[in-house]
Amino acid sequence: MNQHVINFTRYTLLLLIISLVGCSNHEEQNLSEANGYKKEEMMKDKIELAIFPEKIHQTIESFGASGAWWSQDVGGWTENETEELTKREYIAELLFDKNKGIGLTSYRYNLGAGSTAENSSKITDPWRRAESFELAPGEYDWSRDKKAQWMLNTAVEYGVEDIYLFVNSPPTRLTKNGSAYGTMVDGVSSNLDPENYEAFAKYIYDVSEYFVREGVPITHISPINEPQWEWIEGQEGNHYEPDEMVELLKVFVEEKENRSLLSDVSLSMPELGEWGNSSYDYYDAIISDELMMNYFDTWEIHSYWTSQFAKEDFSLWYEQNNLDVELKMTEWTEMVNGRDYTMDSALNLANQIYEDMTILDVSVWQYWIAVSTYDYRDGLIYVELDTQEITIPKRLWVMGNFSKFVRPGYRRIESHTDDNEINTLSYVGINEEGKEEIITILINNSNEEKQLKMDIENSTILTAYVTDEENDLSKYEYAADNILVPSRSIVTLVYAD
């Protein structure tokens, strides 16, 4: 098919791309004209953008982030940040408000193991300790973790309908060493005896049922986190060998049958830390077990330590094993020391989303900690614990280039340019006004601005949202024949038919 002669029918083919340069304000403007480009100049040497609405890939479920460990602290910040909002309200607005923030559509709430008690001395960072609701078997104090519960409930009030409850370690009452991390014995550090699997499952389901009764839309319960790692200090965590993982999940499956209130809630697994390398033994354990393959129709995996080539290898392995499970990416951050507020780490984030969306066809993409106080390239927002100062890196706005516009139920469609320095993603869906729209996201990794063209009516007006060193989701309008994409930028184009 000639990519320039596609009948987009209702799509009246919009597609597009964007342009921009400079300007940090959010006023609408034509960037091409603002930068002195005449029409005849814009028509020269433009990059082709092709979109194929008939070639449909995965349906998107959500974009989100985790509330560990910051929400149990920041959720209590009640001093004012603005005249209208407290600090915790301001952060919640940035994360969950679709108009003033980035409109996340999923949220991961951490069910703690009780390491705040005097039992986990190797967790020296207070932020990485977490409360447990349990007082004794079957007895709970729901007033615990109050600050984190505030942030969870606020996310729900903003309309987040995809809530994951995830666990790093079983409650310390159930662990072998009484701590929320393991002890290395004979080369392994699993800290949960099989005789306590059932009690662990009952605890998690009791807590989940409480939240459901409180009106929290729990969609997923994740009892295991990155089981291949040792987890012997530093934070709550628990190692499982592949066979241990499978046996624990079987207990969770069996116990869930007794919980009618949770019938619409999914078990999330295996939450492995990377797509390749150390994960394959765990994949093999899953596909070798009949119950695992019959019961689970989704796999949740984290994208740490996984290159583009490792993802491609996993995709090939997936096809060779004739698997038919939906893939979700439920945790990633850039594992690099030192804070970064710039487009460097923001572009890395955008390209990770691009790889996971196109190589692995993931339906969910969730960032790790939404708020950080660390000297690290994590967090969509940075805070200072002593002053409660809030700083916003470019990562937040780049995440918004995706989460604010690609809403639940949108479908990814094929798109590309003939420039290997620009990565493209396109989606089609029904917006809040009931109109069909196409979203195109352009990631310009080059140090040069790019001019693009789309074979549609030149008079078509396109709306663009740009994030670069000078813009934070700044809004622009321009004609389809005036498309300028700034250097090192992410541009989201919205076209409603």
Describe what you observe in this structure.
With 497 residues, the protein is of the alpha/beta class. The protein has two domains: 9-59 and 412-496, Sandwich (Immunoglobulin-like); 62-408, Glycosidases (TIM Barrel, Alpha-Beta Barrel). Helices cover 24% and strands 25% of the residues. The protein has twelve helices and 23 strands. A nine-stranded mixed β-sheet has the order 21-20-23-18-17-16-1-19-22. A hairpin with a 4-residue loop joins strand 16 and strand 17. Residues 1-29 and 31-44 have low confidence and may be disordered.
Descriptive terms for the model:
globular, TIM Barrel, 24% helix
Summarize the structure.
With 497 residues, this protein is an alpha/beta fold. It is built from 12 helices and 23 strands. The two termini are 23 Å apart.
What is the subunit arrangement here? single chain
Count of separate structural domains: 2
> What portion of residues belong to β-strands?
15-25%
Average of the residue pLDDT scores: 91
- Specify the CATH architecture of the largest domain: Alpha-Beta Barrel
CATH T-level fold name of the largest domain: TIM Barrel
Give the uncertain stretches in residue-range form: 1-29, 31-44
- Helix share, percent: 10-25%
Strand order of the largest sheet: 21-20-23-18-17-16-1-19-22
Please report the total strand number as a whole number. 23
Report how far the terminal alpha carbons are from each other. 23 Å
Report the C-alpha radius of gyration, rounded: 23 Å
Main sheet record: 9 strands, mixed
CATH superfamily of the largest domain: Glycosidases
Helix and strand content put the structural class at alpha/beta
Outline: globular
CATH class of the largest domain: Alpha Beta
Number of helices: 12
